[in-house]
């Protein structure tokens, strides 16, 4: 089954909001072997929607729209869909029932001006268990369209609970099993990997499946799409990819094989090895901690983080010496490792990694420009700090790259346990 | 000038990466009065690119592609564009010069297998100052296309430095001035605002400009697009919007009029009032601190945050009583305000806000299900804690909503100073 998503909203095209539904749907479809073939992001305008609907209805089996079903006058999706499919909007008992139930449940009175009881003729209303506006569903032979609200929690719930059930018969049981095996590497750019370190890697892996390469701020993810007729053959193929990778000249650069993020791998390894981890963060401003706590179950090993943005906090909570700050500066390997020692004690952690750098746009100097970062760590056996000079980026990206460097340091240290 | 962006990459449609270029470009175009009319997100496939290129080349004045210019075999954009425009790929002295310069600068040797010196006939290479792969530019009468790398720092730099200069003549000097005035509200959903609190608001504001409404986890942003023939008329109109809003029945729900985020408003107001702020975070895991430190200049007032994920850290660093944790639990208003008192001292801050809640998916109980959060604050004059029950969402969204609640509490407290 091929899906196209049309994401509707002026706010998505003027930089006010970043859509998150497409990213979620992409991951969901990938897990469930559904082909997500295109995402159209368009304003609340008839011409734009009609142009995208024409294409999507022609190319996809299931078209999803997101957004524009709410109660305000700029929510035009229902009217536009009614016009596109030439089906007038009519009262619908089931839609009225959905709306009344939702309002009853939240002890508010339904206001008929909302028109949640109306749907285009021939469309089915979709229950919205976590919001108010119902969705819309329509089937024409093998083609389907579902209009869902843009609010992420409503979009997700209605897609998984309502749309999938209605589309079920169109999702063919496949006789091939597929998997995307991802070889995650660090410390070498794409051109170095494929031209120097492992020049035959791409072609060799291509014998096992379709190869792809995706650079990120700290390394390269190499994907191999494998498929087989049954699960045991699939598992044999996956094992071949793993063995090839682990015996290739690239092996020193591989930090994980699998789809997990670095924060997930850190939590998993720390749990396996029973290591209590923590951070002291200056330039990353809490981002390292936030990334680790995005992982469900992180509380088993994550003690916390001291976000020591101001030097007073470095001194008072982390016990960094005033003289170290004065002599070497807050952005220095010396401060980074004193922060690590102090944080390990304050957080009662086994392993702590620290960041202190210049995220910009201000605050840089000749010797410590934007992109300079001290990274420190402290464990039972060892304590050290490094100073790195990374290419300057804008502030948010800089924080992301800094946090990536700190998480890499943490994973390296965990692997040494 | 109308722009459409075609974002190319399998990784964007299987949930591995969330694109950020479209969001950035949308904001940039909005600031510069350029119409960003559609974003196509498609896989690295000829059929998909041709379908999007056909539409975009037909509807837009400037088509941008992002991604697929790198050195690996799944980078197909150059070949596909060459085929679409029926222009064979040829050697180009300028492209070779760009590539050699970039490699010389980074003290690496250029490998001719990269083919960075080749462009489709009639295309111009675009200098990539922050990466290696050059971009491509082509003009056909009033239509233009630019192919840029997907790496965000390269995309941004090349768009602003190279593409805009080449497209300059096509960006008409406008004789109308435009502005999007945003009325940011909280504590009431859309239907309540427009049906009960201020039923004439939409129509009244529509007399000043085009109105839009955008719900978010904690409130509603109401936008008014105003335009005028000169800047002083524009400013008069903006003033009218502001005065109308501030005198409307909605006034109690407005926390800001302007495009700034809540974290930007917090930093700005804290600087104006000279208040040193900080957090103690359990369930938000550093996200409050990370959001505040996304704001350039936050170091003027932001002391730091104690991410006290484990109860030992709540006791040892924040001085929360063991008996409080035992009697009321970590997720309680009592723990929240003890955390606030301890953190204000530890961080030498004037005002601290704290979070302790259940982000899920595990850890919920009958009385404290996922979505329960204790929020506390401590200032010179006052210290308190509340317990809230918010609708359960998935973990990352839950953290976002929790952090939003904490930032609202912080802004409320700053406004009371």
Tell me the CATH superfamily of the largest domain in chain A.
MoaB/Mog-like domain
Uncertain residue segments of chain A: none
How many structural units, i.e. domains of chain A?
3
**Largest interface, by Cβ-Cβ below 8 angstroms: which chains and how many residues each?**
A-B, 109 and 110 residues
Oligomer: homodimer
Radius of gyration of chain A from CA coordinates? 26 Å
Estimate the global geometry of chain A from the Cα principal axes. globular
CATH top level label of the largest domain in chain A: Alpha Beta
Number of helices of chain A: 14
**What does the largest sheet of chain A look like?**
6 strands, mixed
The strands making up the biggest β-sheet of chain A line up spatially as 2-1-3-8-7-6
Structural class of chain A: alpha/beta
Total E-strand runs of chain A = 17
Determine the CATH topology of the largest domain in chain A.
Molybdenum Cofactor Biosythetic Enzyme, Chain A
Estimated helix fraction of chain A:
25-40%
Terminal CA distance of chain A reads 46 Å
% residues in beta strands of chain A = 25-35%
CATH architecture title of the largest domain in chain A: 3-Layer(aba) Sandwich
Average per-residue pLDDT of chain A, rounded, comes to 93
Short description:
Chain A has three domains: 2-170, MoaB/Mog-like domain (Molybdenum Cofactor Biosythetic Enzyme, Chain A); 177-257, Alpha-Beta Plaits (2-Layer Sandwich), CATH 3.30.70; 262-416, Maf protein (Alpha-Beta Complex).
